[in-house]
Amino acid sequence: MLACFASASCLVTQTTGGLISGMLLFLVAAGLSLIFGTLKVINFMHGSLYMLGAYFAFTIYNVTGSYALAVLGAALGVGLFGLVFERLFMSRVYGTDVLMQLLVCYSFILILDDAVKIIWGAEFRSMGMPAAFQRPPIMVAGGVLPVFYLFLIGITVLVALVLGFLITRTRIGKIVRAAAVNPTMASALGINTTMVYAGVFALGSLLAGLAGALAVPVRSLVAGMGFSILIESFIVTIIGGMGSVAGALVGALLIGLVRSFGSIGFPLFTEGIMFLFMTLILITKPTGLFGKEL
Amino acid sequence: MRKPSIGRDALVAVALLALLAALPMIFPAKSFADFVMRASAFAIFATSLNLLVGYAGMVSFGHGLFFGLGAYSFALLMQKLGTSIPVAFALTVFINALVAAIIGAICVPLKEIYFSFLTLAFQMLLYSLIIAWTTITGGDQGLTGGVPRPPFLGVHLDDPHHLYLFCCTTLVVSLFLMWHLVQSPFGYTLRMIRDNPRRASFLGIQVWRIRVLAFIVAGVFGGIGGVLISLFVSSAYPDFAYWTVSGEAVFMIMLGGVSVFFGPLVGAALLLLLNDLITRVTEHYSLVLGVVILVFALGLRKGLLGFVMQAWRKYAPAAPGPGKNPGTQGRH
Amino acid sequence: MLKIENLQKSFGGISAISEVSLHFAAGSLTAVIGPNGAGKTSFFNLICGALRPDGGRILLDGENIAGLSAPAIVRRGIGRAFQIASIFPSLSVREAILGAVNAHHRWHARLGRRFPLTVAKPQADEVMELVGLTAQADTLSGNLSHGDQKVLDIALALALEPRVLLLDEPTAGMGPEERGRMMETVHQLWQRKKMTLIFIEHDMDIVFKFAQTIRVLSYGRVLAEGTPEEVRRHPSVIEAYLGARYDAEHPP
């Protein structure tokens, strides 16, 4: 692995690979963090939403041939799914034992994993690069930078900016933050907390679905693909700080790069390094790099 | 409050063991013995998780780590080091205790949801380790070559009848020990910490330390469950450390009733029965199980045994107390 | 016995306690009074270790306990009861008090025997009898009435055989008759156990009837201290808290 640091091309390739991993992770983690920050509930099946986004995008692209449509459709579709899930199921277990919430999410992971297997089959699927992006990659210092990567990074950065803006500067953002901090008070002030919860859950789901759709050209699809990204998202929010968009970005990029460089070394190393980071943060600054006091 | 008596409970345990030992004469089918052995492993595991969840108020999502660790430690010790079964058993207990101490020390100081998720993260770390370290663990195929079962003290575990008795004995002894722990002053301190950790610390209790101890005990017994399962399948599979094991254990606890000591035992048996039923009817096991869990989570909250116990309870229902969890009233 | 020197505590730039120096004699019965926000509960929190002081010393029989953890301070003999009863809802009254007795004697981590420990029973029974909860011994703490929960809260602190007992608004949320009974119980406890008792209270009738000495806090500072007679005449206290007509309406 150290040899890679000496080679510019290797450095570029691994860095860009790490960047897109990080970007995807950021989208998922941001959604998870948003839901947790506002609803005080861990959406344990958040990884399944990512998986759904990937499969939706896969199908839409195969049917329509348009990747743009696939991404849009998948994101909106998963957002809708999240909305329905929240309204019909999750909201029934608000305020109960966290174990009940876990069981509801766990049940959906099981159901969705099998549903995916039934509809799309149990084997690994892959989509390949969409037609729009089948261009020669950009060469940077001898390293490969596929055009799609730029697109992915661009979209994610855009989303991050919009999200940040939405939360901190718009009225909607204020309402969401109010409902997060003190739902009883917010409700007494006339804020429809039910709608806020539903909306936030839908938005968080949309982000996960978007991530899945963006991941399809560069990852293979299989039932259960969401779970490891769920765990990583959580580690990201620990490192970055729960409730912080900037923290999620930094944490996700960190993990993405660690994964990328770690994968060319001993594979165990990657997991270990991630955990080392996380444990270090927990010991030194438990609220995370950008986190606020909970 | 019932009159506590170690002696009386020991007698009950012996009677239960005798009953279990006699059952194969009534149900001679191999599937019955298999069922009991598998149920033993999971019952011990689920009960150990309930020590944390039900009695200490520590919701661990990653308890499956110890199930897998117990299974792999034991199997590897037997396979690679050729130790005797009692030695391997003891070493496995030690390894689980050590790992539990380390992970507990890191996770316990964290706030609830962080604690829950971090335990899960550690479990997945172990899982990745198992999958990646193919030279030692056999990777995703599981351990090949079987787990040797050399005789010890006249016990021949390759004799299915001996194995059955061994599992039943381990089950009864483990449950007895855990029951005793729960009924000891330590157990009541756990309940106090569960109900009101702040007040507990204002009684001079070092909450952190007690929680880590509970975590260690739970980890040890979780590992014992793993030992049994690895003996039963004569191997160790990565599935034993996969997150679904933790999820299923949670379901077992909820199914049987979180406020009752024997809830997890009942839940384990029920879930195994359910699993067998489902796999017999369809290949879409996850789907059906998922639906069952969903229906349960949205409907039947207190678990089967909890339901029954509530009907029996003579405690004054009066005004509902400010308990933190549903089903906290009238715990054993 | 309990000597507070220059205690300081700020929260994010706002000073909750500043330059508070007080002395509580051994075996005294003191009321701490003052308007809302005066810092009374913070004062208690600092003494019993729920908060770390930013400055100053808290001397318990000469030993500075400022900054120690709550369990450490508790083990040195300071017991605390809470404004909102802080109890263990799923345990019965007897079990909870036994648990507290266990904690006091460091028996709470014992694994060898069953709960309840035979050695702990007499003490628990005594505490229950002292506070008058014996009839409720087997009731779940969570099912007790509000008043009884407050009593249990005090009982839990008593089980620790404290040298100093801090009661945060022992009569909070009670009707006038219940308040009287509660304070009678507290007073009897104080007499029997000969401990240093400090209580926060808003009901001035209670305060002037039961307290030996009074400390008045306002805006995080000591406004006045002395006997009830001295305090009720004190101009600053009248201005800040009692109101000019109190004395006229409540002749001693």
How many alpha or pi helices of chain C? 10
Helix percent band of chain B: over 70%
CATH homologous superfamily grouping of chain C: P-loop containing nucleotide triphosphate hydrolases
CATH architecture of chain C: 3-Layer(aba) Sandwich
Class based on secondary structure composition and strand pairing of chain C: alpha/beta
Describe this structure in words.
With 294 residues, chain A is mostly helical. Chain A has one domain. Helix content of chain A is 73%, strand content 2%. Chain A is built from twelve helices and two strands, in the order H-H-H-H-H-E-E-H-H-H-H-H-H-H. The radius of gyration of chain A is 19 Å and the shape is globular. By secondary structure, chain B is mainly alpha-helical. Chain B has a domain at 6-16 and 31-242. Helices cover 71% and strands 0% of the residues of chain B. Chain B has 14 helices and no strands. Mean pLDDT of chain B is 87; it is low at 316-332. Chain C starts with a strand and ends with a helix. In chain C, 37% of the residues lie in helices and 24% in strands. Chain C has helices spanning 40-48, 70-75, 93-104, 121-131, 146-158, 176-193, 204-210, 228-233, 235-242, 246-249, and strands spanning 2-11, 14-24, 29-33, 55-60, 63-64, 78-81, 164-168, 196-200, 213-218, 221-226. With 252 residues, chain C is of the alpha/beta class. In chain C, the strands form two sheets. In chain C, strands 6-7-8-3-9-10 form a six-stranded mixed sheet, sandwiched between helices. In chain C, strands 2-1-4-5 form a four-stranded antiparallel sheet, covered by helices on one side. Chain C has ten helices and ten strands. Chains in contact: A-B, B-C. At the B-C interface, helix 8 and helix 9 of B face helix 2 and helix 3 of C.
